[in-house]
Amino acid sequence: MNFFRRIKKWFSANNPRIENLKFLAEQLNMTYSAQDEFGMIHLLKDFKLFRKGFSKKITNILQEKEAFLASDIRIFDYQYTQRYGKTTKNFKQTVFFIQSKALDLPKFYMEPEYFFHRIANFFGINDIDFEAYPEFSKQYLLKSKDEDRLRGKMSEEVLHYFTIEKDWCLEGVNYYLILYIEEGVFLSKDIPYFYNKGKEIVAMFTK
């Protein structure tokens, strides 16, 4: 075993997050993979999150796969780098991903709405609003080229849920859905909470 492999093996064996996630995977009846061995980066390339930056890497994958590919849930750490002039910045976060035959979504993304978004709206770059849910529309920027179809997917239950739940980012396309908090890495002890949030949201979109 060469020097770098020994270092990598030592790091894995002495990384509390890795050990905690391995234990957690057993508790949640999921499998654990340290590295992205199946090219998830390419699977997720249509999502806005995964079009950002370079040096993209997926690690610490927890997976729950149902029979006959009815659903495939993965929770993982994601990192990438962006360049700002002569400097670079690394971003890290935890992502909930599901592939499910029960999902049939238009391509869309939803993220917290900030002041600069409202300025963009003033110049005609409009997001999708719901008159009956002004607080949701104030809190979230929602975009899709298939607005009518997306409105049909955004049920009252979904809109009410995200009126209360703040700061989430949500993206969907066809049978794929991802959930995350911008630049938010969940501690291993909080992964069950994140897992349950993802399952709640999927249930609302598949009713």
Which descriptors would you attach to this protein?
207 residues; alpha+beta; eight-stranded antiparallel sheet; 8 helices
Separation, N- and C-terminal Cα atoms? 52 Å
Could you state the order of secondary-structure elements as H and E? HHEHEEEEHHEHHEEH
Helical run tally:
8
Strand tally is: 8
- Ranges where pLDDT stays below 50 over 5 or more residues in a row are 1-14
What is the percentage of strand-forming residues? 25-35%
- Record the strand order, biggest sheet: 1-2-3-4-8-7-5-6
Q: What kind of sheet is the major sheet?
A: 8 strands, antiparallel
> What is the CA-atom radius of gyration, in angstroms?
18 Å
Gross geometry: globular
Helical content (DSSP H or I, runs of 4+) = 25-40%
Structural class, by secondary structure, is alpha+beta
Average residue pLDDT: 87
Question: Quick gist of this model?
Answer:
With 207 residues, the protein is α+β, with helices and mostly antiparallel strands. The protein has helices at 3-13, 16-27, 40-43, 115-122, 134-139, 147-153, 156-164, 191-205, and strands at 31-35, 54-65, 71-84, 87-100, 105-112, 140-144, 169-174, 176-180. The protein has a domain at 1-103.
Q: Would you kindly provide a written description of the structure presented here, covering whatever features stand out?
A:
This protein is of the alpha+beta class and 207 residues long. The chain is 35% helix and 33% strand. The model is unreliable at 1-14 (pLDDT under 50). It contains 8 helices and 8 strands, in the order ααβαββββααβααββα. It has an 8-stranded antiparallel beta sheet. It is globular, with a radius of gyration of 18 Å.
